[in-house]
Design brief:
It is found in: Cell junction, Adherens junction; Cell membrane; Cell projection, Microvillus; Cell projection, Rhabdomere. It contains 27 helices and 10 strands. The protein is mostly helical. Among the domains are: about 140 residues, Acyl-CoA Binding Protein, CATH 1.20.80; about 180 residues; about 30 residues, no CATH class. The strands form 3 sheets. Strands 4-5-6-7 form a 4-stranded antiparallel beta sheet. A hairpin with an 8-residue loop joins strand 6 and strand 7. Helix 4 runs antiparallel to helix 7 and helix 22 runs antiparallel to helix 23.
């Protein structure tokens, strides 16, 4: 799996010597799990025998003998039993290879999770900068079946695996391997060695040998065993040629016998059974001194590694914090550099503005000087005008024109000077603001440089490194919950290629739909006593053989009766049921709380504030403390009836039987048809024993619900068997009670066991076929009380969510009603206001009409058809074209209809 080792051996070297040399080389001390596997001369995998010479065994005679160091036995719980790290690694490599090579079936969602743990074990923590898309292309991540079953590319699979891989941060490689094995050990085919066998009827089956016991599988289903035997129930194991015999501890049970196709397979089964049984019993005994020392040493090593891991985690966390802080400093330096460059550019722009401003100031000074010279000239001209009074008219007009031109030029120059003054003031303000902003930035840059000096950074890094109080966050190891698995399953179902679904995928989906897993199936197949399970194993036969047996039993009435009586006897020897809930009633002391909807009504009254959810959960806690559970109380009103001296079997629900009819054993004998009456009486039920009468009762009850002649194992048949037993035993209990002071407890105990068992059958029939259930109840006269359906979920979260939804709906309805009432009120108000306006408009229209009539009368014209006359018959006669032309301003058509 991981490496190759070469050893030089002698011809006298035994298997144990070679095995000891291997485990010594690799440093393995838990040697009881492993062995050396080789391929014999006929091509079958075989384990090397330790007590024999290597060369004397059936190894292929080659220059170099090839052996594989493999796990021969598996632990029940890897987290509790595996001690050494090398043992953990060897199991991890072997199990991973078995899953990837599809020797062990693994569903797609579990394969993705296992791949994430494998990547954590191989590469350590997920690093986004290093582990990019395509970096896992060289790794075997998923089984080929899973890769080809979904419409996903390699990059998409890697993306899903990396999402889970990132959740395993700070997990050590050893812990990742352990988590991988903890997930893998829940797979149905984990640690199971399968062998082809046949039972006494020749049915081809699979025998599964694992750490917990022996399981029997159907030929086409290696996931769900049908019968199971734990190692604690097995007393002796032996084989003779191809026949393998297992003797159970229960002396009442027969031997467990099967047949293997080859003798060497029986030898291998025997060796696996002996080893697994020995380890099974060793686990349930105190550890030996050697194992205790190994566990103590391993615990010390783990503690040392844990301390080193914690120290390393602290240092890594401190280093990450320092690197993060350094990145922050670098980012701040980059931002400050950008700010400095921006400020430099703004400074250059401000200097350019200052230069332009100085140039404008110089121009302003020159304009002022020019203005002053013009003003002096104007004053001079004014003085000349005033002094020269004896001046001609022409010269005076010329001077006036020159003065007005000079005044206009002065005004223009003054406006230019004012505009330049305002612009100069604005530029001065901008320069001052830029200078202040530059000073503030220079001050800020000076403070940052003082804070982020190299000495401070080194000290901070050293303090973070040596700080022992740093709380390093640890990612939870058990991150994968059932809900997340379901989410991953739903996500993968959307891209599943249904044409690539295998038989094992179908079986897995059926088990998942039925809520079955590996351990529930084991508990189910190991229920009951050993004898019943061995009988169940022996009755596992081919479908064709089932039909043949059914046909034979229908031809021979005696065989049918014996087969049915055997089934009844098997049913009667069931283990005692727990009889849960049947007569439990929790009394409620408060009369108000007897209302089934009391707590729901209280939930509807809670205030909708910040404490609503807390109050709802508190109310649920109070609810489950006072709620009563209702279930089936009694399923047969005839059970427990006290008989009277004149009681007949019909009073106990048993059918009427013709006592002159032949007994069941002779029912199909043709010679009795023409025999004399005296002979018929000898073979009649009346002349027979009590059991003949009870057999007739049972047969008649069974036939009343028999669906067809091949019906032997349906729920209706089993209910009829148990009903016949219950009612017959009720008669016996009453008869014995009349002759003895008290009832026979040995029989009443079995009677109530049958009652409990029939309740279970009735529930199953009611869930599968309600019509058949009603027919059986009516035919067999069984009083079966069906409990009221539980309204609403029972968990706290679900109940709270349901009450919240109900409250939201009620609040929504209440708010809608309020809005509806407001709408009606607003509508009434607006309608009243509209009525007032319409009335007012009508009054105004009437006043205008009256005034118009007065004017027209004064002019001598009639006003009957001018305005204000409502003519509905004209509107009804208008066509759509005419109405359209009227509305959009076309030529008004002539109305030919006359008004009333």
């Amino acid at each position: 799996m991981d490496a190759e080792l070469e050893f030089a051996i002698q011809s006298t070297t035994t298997g144990k010597q070679l095995y000891d040399q291997v485990v010594k080389t690799i440093g393995l001390r838990e040697v009881w799990y492993f062995g050396l596997l080789y391929t014999d001369s006929k091509g079958y995998p075989t384990w090397l025998k330790l007590n024999k010479k290597v060369t004397s065994q059936d190894v292929k005679k080659e220059p170099t003998l090839q052996f594989k160091f493999r796990a021969k036995f598996y632990p029940e719980d890897v987290a509790e039993e595996i001690i050494q790290e090398i043992t953990l690694r060897l199991f991890y490599l072997q199990v991973k290879e078995a899953i990837l090579s599809e020797e062990v079936y693994c569903p797609a969602e579990t394969s993705v999770l296992l791949a994430s743990y494998a990547m954590q074990s191989k590469y350590g923590d997920f690093a986004p900068d290093t582990h990019k898309a395509g970096c896992l292309a060289s790794d075997r991540l998923l089984p080929q079946r899973v890769s080809g079953q979904y419409k996903l590319s390699t990059e998409e699979w890697e993306k899903r695996i990396m999402v889970w891989w990132a959740d395993h941060k700070a997990m050590t490689r050893e812990t990742a391997m352990l988590e991988y094995l903890k997930l893998a050990q829940d797979l149905e085919m984990y640690g199971v060695n399968y062998f082809d066998i046949k039972n006494k009827k020749g049915t081809e089956l699979h025998l599964g040998v694992d750490a917990l016991g022996l399981n029997i599988y159907e030929k086409t289903d290696k996931l769900s065993p049908k019968v199971g035997f734990p190692w604690s129930e097995i007393r002796n194991i032996s084989f003779n040629d191809k026949k393998f015999v297992i003797k159970p501890i229960d002396k009442k049970a027969s031997d467990f016998v099967f047949y293997a196709p080859r003798l060497r397979i029986n030898k291998r089964i025997l060796a696996l059974c002996m080893g697994n049984h020995e380890l099974y019993m060793r686990r349930r005994k105190p550890d030996t001194i050697e194992v205790q020392q190994m566990k103590q040493q391993a615990e010390e090593e783990r503690q040392q590694k844990r301390l080193e891991q914690e120290r390393l985690s602290k240092e890594m966390s401190a280093r990450e914090a320092a690197e993060q802080k350094q990145k922050e400093y670098e980012e701040r330096m980059r931002r400050m550099q950008e700010d400095m460059e921006r400020a430099q550019q703004e400074l250059l722009a401000a200097q350019d503005t200052i230069r332009r401003l100085e140039q404008q100031l110089a121009d302003l000074q020159m304009a002022k000087q020019a203005l002053e010279s013009k003003e002096s000239e104007l004053l001079e001209l004014t003085r000349q005008l005033q002094s020269e009074k004896v001046m001609s008219e022409e010269e005076r007009e010329r001077l006036v024109v020159a003065i007005s031109e000079r005044e206009q030029a002065v005004a223009e120059m003054r406006s230019q000077v004012d505009a330049k003054t305002e612009e100069t003031y604005r530029l001065q303000q901008e320069v001052e603001m830029a200078r202040q902003r530059q000073q503030a930035e220079n001050h800020a840059r000076g403070g940052v440089r003082e804070h982020e000096g190299p000495d401070d950074l080194t000290n901070a890094h050293l303090e973070l490194t040596v700080d022992e109080e740093v709380n390093v966050p640890q990612t939870e190891l058990e991150r994968v919950t059932a809900t997340e698995k379901n989410m991953l399953t739903k996500e993968l179902d959307m891209v599943k290629d249904q044409q690539q679904v295998t038989d094992y995928d179908v079986l897995h989906m059926e088990n998942k739909r039925a809520g079955r897993d590996k351990y529930k199936t084991l508990r189910q197949i190991r229920g009951g006593n050993t004898k019943r399970r061995i009988d169940q194993y022996e009755n596992m036969c081919k479908p064709a053989m089932n039909k043949l047996i059914s046909a034979l039993t229908t031809d021979f009435g005696v065989a049918l009766a014996l087969q049915q009586r055997a089934a009844i006897h098997t049913t009667a020897e069931l283990s005692r049921a727990r009889r849960q809930f049947f007569n439990i009633h929790k009394k409620v002391s408060d009369p108000e709380r007897q209302d089934p909807e009391y707590f729901e009504k209280q939930a509807a009254k809670l205030a909708l504030d910040d404490h609503y959810i807390d109050a709802l959960q508190k109310l649920y806690t109070e609810k489950i403390g006072s709620e009563r559970d209702l279930n089936v109380k009694a399923d047969d009103s005839l059970v427990g009836r006290t008989g009277t001296p004149t009681s007949s079997p019909q009073d106990y629900g048993l059918p009427e039987v013709d006592l002159k009819a032949p007994r069941l054993a002779y029912a199909n004998v043709d010679e009795l048809t023409n025999a004399p009456e005296s002979v018929k009486r000898i073979f009649s039920i009346d002349h027979g024993q009590r059991r003949d009468l009870t057999d007739a009762w049972k047969q008649k009850l069974i036939q009343s619900v028999n669906k067809h002649k091949y019906d032997e194992s349906s729920l209706q048949m089993r209910i009829a068997w148990t009903t016949a037993l219950i009612r017959h035993w009720s008669i016996l209990v009453d008869e014995i009670a009349k002759k003895t002071p008290k009832k026979p407890t040995w029989l009443t105990h079995r009677l109530w066991l049958m009652v409990d068992y029939r309740r279970k059958l009735l529930r199953q029939l009611r869930e599968q076929d309600s019509e058949a259930f009603a027919e059986v109840i009516k035919t067999l006269k069984i009083a079966f009380h069906v409990p009221v359906e539980q309204v609403g979920p029972k968990t706290r979260k679900a109940w709270s969510e349901r009450q919240l939804r109900i409250r939201v709906d009620s609040e929504k309805e209440r708010r809608l009603k309020e809005l509806h009432e407001e709408l009606k009120k607003d509508r009434d108000q607006k309608m009243n206001a509209l009525d007032g306006k319409l009335k007012k408009l009508a009054d105004e229209e009437q006043a205008i009409k009256n005034r118009l009539e007065t004017i027209m009368e004064l002019e001598g014209k009639a006003t009957k058809n001018v305005v204000g006359v409502y003519q509905p018959h004209l509107i009804e006669n208008l066509s759509e074209t005419t109405m359209h032309a009227t509305l959009f301003g076309h030529r008004k058509p002539t109305l030919t209809a006359s008004h009333a």
